[in-house]
Amino acid sequence: METKYFTISVYSENNVGLLNRISGIFLKRHINIESLNVSKSEIKDVSKFTIVVFTTEDWTRKIVQQIEKQVEVIKAYYHEDDEIIFQDTALFKIASHLLFDERQIQNIIKASHAQIVTVSRDFFVLAKTGRRHEIEDMYHQLEPYGIMQFVRSGRIAVSKEAMPIRELLAEIEEKQHL
Amino acid sequence: MEVVNSKQTQGAAQTPKGMKISGAEALIHCLLAEGVDLIYGYPGGAIMPVYDELYKFQDRLTHILTRHEQGATHAAQGYARVSGKVGVAMATSGPGATNLVTGLADAQIDSTPMVCITGQVPRHLLGSDAFQETDIVGISTPVTKWNYQITKASEIPEIIAKAFYIARSGRPGPVLVDITKNAQFDALDFDYTPCTSVRSYHPLPVATEESVEAAASLINRAKKPFIIFGQGVILGEAEEELEAFVEKSGIPAAWTILGHSALSSDHPLNVGMVGMHGNYGPNVLTNECDVLIAIGMRFDDRVTGNLDTYAKQAKIIHLEIDPAEIDKNVKVDVALLGDSKDSLARLLPKIEAKSHPQWLKEFEEKHQIEYKQIIERDLYPTKEGLTMGEVVRGINEASGEKAVIVSDVGQHQMIACRYARFKQSKSNITSGGLGTMGFALPAAIGAQMGAPERPVVAVIGDGGYQMTIQELGVIYQHQLPVKIVVLNNDFLGMVRQWQQLFFDKRYASTVMVNPDFVKIAEGYQIKARRVEKREDLNDAIAEMMASEEPYFLEVRVEKEDNVFPMIPSGASVSDIRLS
């Protein structure tokens, strides 16, 4: 079966132990997590995990089933790249003198639509939000000049189709009051 | 004679609502409110406030001091499995808590409802590597259905209610609640409301009407339908529905070891056991049926053998409560996602009354082959050495097939599961998924206390017996009329069998030099007998079954007998070996 990137979105209660429980599901099956992001979601008191894996759809489906099985998980979905809008963010810390010594750097900044977050006497910081390959391209362009520090966030994604958690929770609440 | 204290008069349902009490006392009231009257456990520093309350409530809540925390978990499991109630085990922090891990893992994989309560160092010491501090919530996460650390007394009622609800609902499982010592000491305003729902947790899916229709249609068109049922029938209390379904449809039905006893052994459509050491017919014919109806079972690898060659010719219908089990190991054609009782009851009116005499004849023919080559020699041996099979047959006969049989892990377990016959459900207690040696003796304690009116026979090998042998102390102390049968071949028999068959008889570390088991039992004041000859066997079993006290029976069996049939690891069910 074909391996590719899948983005798993998990809506859950905000619970301390849940990250451990979810990461254990991957660990047990030797599935590497390509990236992981945990944040609040569009619903109050509901957390959202965005997990990227590179594996087969079969494994992804089984993992999603195991994730959903956890008591504190409200619902989990998985999507292929063309079903979501997704972005990564990266920060580049670069020596300030290069801005003046290396004309090409200014061109890279312009072409990449990166933001200059801060400039100080010693260094400046670029923030680049975009697809993974755009960030990789920028990295490779800047690398010859020397990158003092680099960091990239996990993927964050929203799906094109609805993930109707609000409706699901309303339905559950209604059932509980019956 | 008995002094009735003020607490006793409150009654289990009445809890001191609105009163300021300690976290430890609150825990006891929670347990009572959940209908708990029996706890297995072991005290220690971080759980002492709770034990102090247990002392005060001992007239309403019995605590059994097992001799090791692992024993407490298996006893709680045995109790749960035989009674259908939630088993409760308790331990202190650190080593007390880590000793629960095997039992938690066992309960997790065998879907046994259990709540484990552990003490923990006070909140202000958490993370400081304090004395007997261990991150039991972290450690137990992969082997619990849910777990939680309570650090404030006020959390106790809600969390304990949630723990019991999660442990027993849907697909049952173990829950661990860790309570810091400060939360046990601190006061709270007590108010207990049983938990009836958790918004992120949906334990009871209901099979769709379409899935029921689709299943019925497949079943009605089937020429060679076959049922495999598992523990889901027992956990769902769907025994009557299963029997009605089997009888109306006329479909031969086989069981996994955890499903054993859900259908009476003498039912004409009960065709026996599937899996690695299961019966010949049901294994081979799995690969010849046209519709396979899997009820409350999870296609464990010990059941299926090689998945690439498992029932490929058949349409598969899966009645299952846990969505994560659907398509996990075997891709199914129709999934009835719901409680087995409900799914079976809805399927029943939609299926046609039928019989399949030709198809049943195939099972009968296969049975005859297995009977001649294996079963007859196991149950009615003519060679000198005693067989495990004849001992199990003796227990069947002496108990009228009414005993609860608790087996350990290994050759004797397979023999016990193959040959034990049951008329009543919840009778076969064994460690199926995890294969935990040492399970049987403590589990038999729990089974005896969960079903005090029934004879409980623990069938154990000489290896597994010595893993939890210290629990004889509990049997002695409480004079539990558990019947302990050790089938002693001075070997770790199943590993030895594999070494013989697959490792050229290199018996690495499987030879046991055993102590005098009779003397050990006698050391615990337990009536004990050893049998070495066939002519003494029936008398000894009869004496044991008649005993109203604890009884230990060691049977010296043939040293190098093998369990057959056998599906070698990784082979197909149709490649099952008869020798």
UniProtKB/TrEMBL annotation, chain A:
BP GO terms, sorted: isoleucine biosynthetic process; L-valine biosynthetic process
SUPFAM superfamilies: ACT-like
Reactions that this protein is recorded to catalyse: 2 pyruvate + H(+) = (2S)-2-acetolactate + CO2
Domain of life: Bacteria
GO molecular function: acetolactate synthase activity; acetolactate synthase regulator activity
Annotated keywords: Amino-acid biosynthesis, Branched-chain amino acid biosynthesis, Transferase
Keyword Ribosomal protein in record: no
Gene3D superfamilies: 3.30.70.260, ACT-like. Chain A, domain 2 (3.30.70.1150)
EC code: 2.2.1.6
Segments forming domain ACT: 7-87
Keyword Transferase attached: yes
Pathway: Amino-acid biosynthesis; L-isoleucine biosynthesis; L-isoleucine from 2-oxobutanoate: step 1/4; Amino-acid biosynthesis; L-valine biosynthesis; L-valine from pyruvate: step 1/4
Pfam families: ACT_AHAS_ss, ALS_ss_C
Cellular component, GO, one term: cytosol
CDD domains documented for this protein: ACT_AHAS
Known role: Catalyzes the conversion of 2 pyruvate molecules into acetolactate in the first common step of the biosynthetic pathway of the branched-amino acids such as leucine, isoleucine, and valine.
Subunit structure: Dimer of large and small chains.
PANTHER family: ACETOLACTATE SYNTHASE SMALL SUBUNIT (PTHR30239), ACETOLACTATE SYNTHASE SMALL SUBUNIT 1, CHLOROPLASTIC (PTHR30239:SF0)
Family: Belongs to the acetolactate synthase small subunit family.
Protein name in the entry: Acetolactate synthase small subunit
UniProtKB/TrEMBL annotation, chain B:
UniProt xrefs under InterPro entries: Acetolactate_synth_lsu (IPR012846), AHAS_TPP (IPR039368), DHS-like_NAD/FAD-binding_dom (IPR029035), THDP-binding (IPR029061), Thiamin_PyroP_enz_cen_dom (IPR012000), Thiamin_PyroP_enz_TPP-bd_dom (IPR012001), TPP-bd_CS (IPR000399), TPP_enz (IPR045229)
Residue ranges constituting the Thiamine pyrophosphate enzyme N-terminal TPP-binding domain according to the UniProt record: 22-137
PROSITE patterns tied to this protein: TPP_ENZYMES (PS00187)
SUPFAM superfamilies: DHS-like NAD/FAD-binding domain, Thiamin diphosphate-binding fold (THDP-binding)
Cofactor binding comment, as recorded: Binds 1 Mg(2+) ion per subunit.
Alphabetized GO MF terms: acetolactate synthase activity; flavin adenine dinucleotide binding; magnesium ion binding; thiamine pyrophosphate binding
EC number: 2.2.1.6
Pfam families: TPP_enzyme_C, TPP_enzyme_M, TPP_enzyme_N
Signal peptide coordinates: none
Organism domain of life: Bacteria
Domain Thiamine pyrophosphate enzyme TPP-binding, chain residue ranges per copy: 408-555
Domain Thiamine pyrophosphate enzyme central: 212-347
GO cellular component terms given for this protein: acetolactate synthase complex
Keyword tags: Amino-acid biosynthesis, Branched-chain amino acid biosynthesis, Magnesium, Metal-binding, Thiamine pyrophosphate, Transferase
Stated family: Belongs to the TPP enzyme family.
Protein name: Acetolactate synthase
Classification lineage: Bacteria, Pseudomonadati, Bacteroidota, Flavobacteriia, Flavobacteriales
